[in-house]
Amino acid sequence: MMSSLSSQTSALLASLDIPEGYYTQGTRVVTSPLTGEEIARVAEVTSQDATTRIGASVTAFQAWRQVPAPRRGELVRLLGEELRAGKKTLGQLVSLEAGKSPSEGLGEVQEMIDICDFAVGLSRQLYGLTIPSERPDHRLTEQWHPMGPIGIISAFNFPVAVWCWNAALALVCGDPVIWKPSEKTPLTALATQALFLRAAARFGDAPADLSTVLIGGRAIGELLADDARVPVISATGSTRMGRWVGERVARRFGRSILELGGNNASIVTPSADLDLTLRAVAFSAMGTAGQRCTTLRRLLVHSSVYDQLVSKLVNVYRTISVSNPLEGNALVGPLIDEAAFTAMQTSLEAARAAGGTIHGGERENVNGAGSFYVRPALVEMTSQTGPVLEETFAPILYVMKYDTLADAIALQNDVPQGLSSSIFSTDIRDIELFLSSRGSDCGIANVNMGPSGAEIGGAFGGEKETGGGRESGSDAWKGYMRRQTNAINYGRTLPLAQGVKFDIDDGSAKG
């Protein structure tokens, strides 16, 4: 007899016309972090099958790159329509498989819809340049061409949105996509693929294998990273994983788009609106149970407002609701698995050994031994040391005092990661300094909001050990295309650049 969550999962997958065998007859067990119970068994691809599917993606590329970009945008428009129609179903699957609250599950699907809208407009704006030439009767241009199959390696915490950030752009750029989802969230990948296939069927003449899903473990990721037929690998995950992927892809002169760890900080200045700050910090530090790459992990508070703000924060941490988000209005749901819980406890022990004062962090008795719910932890530290310098993918917020803004900026930047950051201030001088070249060294710098979350209009990514990649908005599309510079001579002579002379008359060289 199937459990309640298993029944719900099966019903949702069946509503998308996914064959039952896809999620009942495999060897990889899928569990829900909400209860720890098994909800499906999926089949994994073999290395041989994955190699064959990559070849099929190459064939699809040869046809898709010839389709005009605005026509390619029509497919993405249809994908957006299918996502709108399937938003509730896919959002529920995200909650069941990743443990997110209903609003966060639906919000993730909305993010997919938004990037589809962005990409449809982009399909008519893949602009090149016209560049003045130093040679008479010459014109220089720069244009962008499709790159080839794009490999996407995604993480469990945003199991579908990150695929769409990449896929929507890649498809309008003329590239197929090959997706290796997290081993922890394969069901949402199957569901997303089903919605894509519906869009492709409505499109009418899309080549087969424009979107491919490869469910498997590390070996499949290695195969994808090593295959020279996949010119771009977009990987989201830990710095450790990204270093491995980046080195492997670089070895074959491929291109990587890396969106890795974030040890994100917020600075609270004396002029901050503390009520706004309290709400923003609470969401940024505890939303998604601290399992966002943009989660707030370090809070730097000016000594003049430290006691006032931190006393309120401690009370929020003590009283915040921690439970199954599908059974009530809990703001904090489960960690993804036992490994995440163990990593959190290890970091808290290290913080305690370093002199930290810990509020919260204990396991909550929700849904039995198979699930891992924890009370978020606020840790007051006297210095930025030990575990504070590392990213623990769990709801731990390290809080420290500072005396000058220069000190706070130095502390914020003095970690290996450089993803997201923010400042709370009503002093324009502090804000502008924070946003200047002497301020935050992160890819994202926010004002009067936390570092967590982003809109699709801006390029998403960070510096240093965050990997330097950019996804989603702005000109991130250039990462999925190859640049070509063209020089056109429309005259009857051959002037050379830089004044070089190389004259030939009637077959005889002139000295």
TrEMBL record:
Q: What is its EC number?
A: 1.2.1.3
Keyword NAD belongs to the record = yes
Positions of the catalytic residues: 259
Q: Where is the Aldehyde dehydrogenase domain?
A: 28-485
Recorded hits in InterPro entries, A to Z, give: Ald_DH/histidinol_DH (IPR016161), Ald_DH_C (IPR016163), Ald_DH_CS_GLU (IPR029510), Ald_DH_N (IPR016162), Aldehyde_DH_dom (IPR015590), ALDH7A1-like (IPR044638)
Q: Which UniProt keywords apply?
A: NAD, Oxidoreductase
Q: Please list the coiled coil stretches.
A: none
Stored Pfam families: Aldedh
Q: What top-level branch of life does the organism fall under?
A: Bacteria
Q: Tell whether Oxidoreductase is among the UniProt keywords.
A: yes
Q: How does it assemble?
A: Homotetramer.
Family membership, please give it: Belongs to the aldehyde dehydrogenase family.
- PANTHER family hit by this protein: ALPHA-AMINOADIPIC SEMIALDEHYDE DEHYDROGENASE
Which protein is depicted?
aldehyde dehydrogenase (NAD(+))
Organism per entry: Gluconobacter potus
Ranked from the top, the taxonomy reads: Bacteria, Pseudomonadati, Pseudomonadota, Alphaproteobacteria, Acetobacterales
